[in-house]
Amino acid sequence: MKDLLTIAMPKGRIFEEAAELLRQAGFDLPPEFDDSRKLIIDVEEERFQFILAKPMDVPTYVEHGVADLGIAGKDVMLEEERDIYELLDLKISACYLAVAGIPGTKMNEVAPKVATKYPNVAAAYFREQGEQVEIIKLNGSIELAPLIGLSDRIVDIVSTGRTLKENGLVEYEQIVGITSRLIVNPVSYRIKDKRISEIVDKLSRVVNEQAAQ
Ligand code: PRP
């Protein structure tokens, strides 16, 4: 395929909203897009190749230039600090990062522990607060950690708040608001600037329309 543009899409929660946004922007994505186990999907009519990656890995593919563009949560970008540019706030999948724990508990005075999928963000946050904590990296189900005594606090994504509530946890502090962003490889941005700018224009029109509603 000539003039192919490769886009890294995050599998999971963001995927549906991101696909919907691309369709609203006028890109013709096949039905296969929504219900497939394929990890590489070519959309010849649009001269797109999509790669379906774990959300945390999207900035890695874009930094290495195997994807020109990517859709990544701000949480992932803050954690990974990759050499990429952020082009547009897509304003989808809004949520925030928060410190949470068992209600009415204080952090252990000696070697308090914080469990998280975001060790860099969590470490920076507690450093700024002047608190020395031990960070315990987990890959999911973070809410388990305080419940079974692995940590005093967690740093995790809160979306609806349901997971915290159903597990009897409360939020102590909000750290930062999160939405998904369109990111680009700096070299791709230079050499494919015209096509990329067209995509940004189309997407930002939809994003602005939705914000005005
Ligand atoms: C995320 C996050 C919380 C939950 C928050 O986990 O880590 O656990 O969603 O959403 P809520 O506020 O709407 O309940 P995810 O489901 O992505 O899976 P994970 O536990 O494997 O990280």
How does this structure look, described?
This protein is α/β, with parallel strands linked by helices. It folds into two domains: 5-94 and 178-212, 3-Layer(aba) Sandwich (D-Maltodextrin-Binding Protein, domain 2), CATH 3.40.190.10; 95-176, Periplasmic binding protein-like II (D-Maltodextrin-Binding Protein, domain 2), CATH 3.40.190. Helix content is 33%, strand content 29%. The chain has helices at residues 13-24, 58-63, 74-80, 119-128, 144-147, 162-166, 186-191, 193-212; strands at 5-10, 40-43, 48-53, 69-73, 85-89, 95-101, 113-116, 134-137, 153-158, 170-178, 180-184. The strands form two sheets. It has a six-stranded mixed β-sheet with strand order 2-3-1-4-11-5. Strand 7 (113-116), helix 4 (119-128) and strand 8 form a beta-alpha-beta unit. The longest helix has 20 residues, at 193-212. The radius of gyration is 19 Å and the shape is elongated. The two termini are 38 Å apart. 1-O-pyrophosphono-5-O-phosphono-alpha-D-ribofuranose is lined by residues 13, 117, 140-143, 156-163. Its main location: cytoplasm. One of its GO terms (cellular component) is cytoplasm. GO terms for molecular function: ATP binding; ATP phosphoribosyltransferase activity. One of its GO terms (biological process) is L-histidine biosynthetic process. It catalyses: 1-(5-phospho-beta-D-ribosyl)-ATP + diphosphate = 5-phospho-alpha-D-ribose 1-diphosphate + ATP.
